[in-house]
Amino acid sequence: MKTPVTSFDRIYTMKRIKNYFQNLSTRRGYILFIIFLVVYLSILYFTAGLHQPVWGDERHFVQTVHEFGQELSLAQLKSYNEMSTPLPFILYALWGKISGYELQQLRLFSLIIAFLTFLIFFRLYQDSSKHLGLALLITLFLIFQPYMIGISVFVFTDMLPLLFLGLSVWAFHRDNPFLMGVALGGALLCRQYYLFLPVAFAAYYSLRILMRQTGSGVKMLFAIALSGIPLILLFILWGGFSPQNDMRKLYLHEKLYFHTDYLILYIALFLVYLFPLILYRWKKFYLKKNILLAALVLSGSYFLFPVKASAYSMAIEIYTVGFFHKFVRLTIGSSLEHYVFYLSYLLSLPVLLTLLIDIYGKVKNRTPDGLLMVNLCIVFFLLIMPFSYLNWEKYFLPVIPLAIISILNKDKFKFLDLSPKSAEN
C-alpha cells in the first residue's frame, strides 16, 4: 500500500528543489566570476605585465625583492632600503626562488594576489548581501578603480595588505579569532599605517564588552593584541617606525605630526572615488538640513589647509597627489584646481557626517553591528593616515571596499549585513 503524500511532504520537496537551484545558481555565479577574473588578469598580464618595462616604484621594489632573495637575516630586516614593513618583499622573494626573479615572473605573483583579493571581497559581498548580481556589480566597481588596475599587475606592495584587509573583515563576519589575528598581523607587516584596522577592531570589541555583549569579544581582543607583536618587534629592531636606511633619513627627519591638509584630501576623495555609489544613495546624505549646514560651515577649513603635494614630493618635482589631481590640472588647469577640491570636500562632508552620526547612534542605543565596525575602520583611517609623511590618492584604497559597505548598507533590508554571529548573543 502506497504511503499518501501529504501537503507537508510537497512543501518540503519544493523547498529542497528551490534550494538546489539557488545553490546551483550561486555555484555557477562563482565559476563565472572566477573565469572573468582569470580572463581579465590574463589580459592585464599580456598587455602590460609582459612587455611594460619597470613602472614607477617597481624599480626599487624589485631591487629590494632581489636583496631579500639573496639574504633573509636580521641584518637585512634592519636596514633594507624601504619605508614600509617587509612581508611583501619577502613573499615576492620566495616566489622568485620558485619561478625566477625576472620582472615578468614577479608580476605573475602580483596577479595571484589580485585574484585572491578580488575573490575574497566578492565572497564577502555575496555572503553579506545574499544577492549574487549585486555582489558582482560592486566587486566590479572595486576591480576597475584606477589604482586597482595598476597594483593588480605591477610589483607594488599595495594589493597584499588589501587581501589581508578582506580576510580580517571576513574573520569578523565569521567570528574567527585565529584568522583575525593572522590577517591583522599580515596587514601590519605590509604597511605600518594599516594600524587603523586593529585599532578599529579593538574599539569595536571593547564597546561590545562594555555593553555586556561579549560573545567572542574577549577572544577577538586577544587575537588583535597578538597580531601587533611582530610589528612591535620590528620597531624594536629598527629603533623607530621604519628600517634604518637612507630613505628614513630623508623622509623622517621631522617629528611625527598630524597633517590637516592630508585629512581634507582623504575626505574629499570620498566623492572622487565613490561618486556612483554616493549618487545612487544621495538621499541618505543630502536631505537633512542640519548635516548640510554643518558641512557648509566645516568646508571653510579647506581654505586654511588646501590640498597640495607634500614637501617630500615637491622636493623630487612631483606637484600633484595622484591621478585625479593630474586630471584636474590637465583639463581645467592648476589655477582652478582648488575650486574642484573644495567642491569635492564640501560634498564629501555629508557622507562623513552621516557616518559619524550612525556611529553615535549605535553606541548610544547599544546596538553594535557590522556597519558600526566598518564605520569605525573608516574613521580610524582618517585619524591615523594624516600622520604619514606623504599624501597620495592611492593611500585611499583601503577605504574603498569598506565605504562600499557603509554607503550601500540598508539596516531595514539587511543588505551588506556583516554582523558576526556573536552579535546576536
Could you give the topology of this structure?
Layout lengths: L6 H43 L8 H13 L3 H6 L7 H13 L3 H27 L2 H12 L2 H8 L5 H15 L3 H12 L7 H15 L6 H11 L1 H10 L7 H6 L8 H21 L1 H5 L2 H10 L12 H5 L7 H9 L5 H28 L5 H15 L14 H10 L17
Structure overview:
- This protein has 425 residues and is mostly helical.
- 69% of the residues lie in helices and 0% in strands.
- It is built from 21 helices and no strands.
- Helix 5 (103-129) runs antiparallel to helix 6.
- 38% of the residues are buried.
- The model is unreliable at 7-12 (pLDDT under 50).
The end-to-end span amounts to 49 Å
Computed over alpha carbons, the radius of gyration is: 23 Å
Helix content: 55-70%
Strand content: under 5%
Helix-strand string: HHHHHHHHHHHHHHHHHHHHH
Calculate the mean pLDDT score and round it.
89
Number of strands: 0
The biggest beta sheet, please?
none
Kindly name the structural category: mainly alpha
Unreliable segments of 5+ consecutive residues: 7-12
The total count of helices amounts to 21
Shape: globular
Task: Give me some keywords for this one.
single chain; 425 residues; mainly alpha; 21 helices; globular
